[in-house]
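We treat protein structure as text, and this decision shapes the records that our systems exchange. We quote a single record here, exactly as it is kept in our systems:
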Amino acid sequence: MNERKIKGVVVDVGHGGSDPGAVSGNLREKDFNLKAAQYMYKRFQELGIPSVIVRDSDETINKTDRVNRVNNAFGGIDEDVIVLSNHINSGGAQADFVIMYNHS
């Protein structure tokens, strides 16, 4: 197992505000993403794991601001920071992987 020291965890909430994500009837992906991220953040805090949540309400954040919040959560881009981005995709599509930043 890798024994490197982790600085912390950044919990990103997919979609939000004017971007509902996947929608089915009155169910919106952004609502599930927010609930999951809030739970994760709270649990990390209870366990004493340094963590930051990108947003804690139904807020519109453009892609640049989202990436900046993630990258600056622990003082800048660092390979010792874990980033969890919550998305709940609708059925029938292949999973997409998004690289939010690249370590040089």
User: Anything to note?
Assistant: The domain at 8-59+72-86 is CATH 3.40.630.40 (Aminopeptidase). The radius of gyration is 14 Å. Helices lie at 29-46, 63-72. The first strand starts at residue 8 and ends at 13.
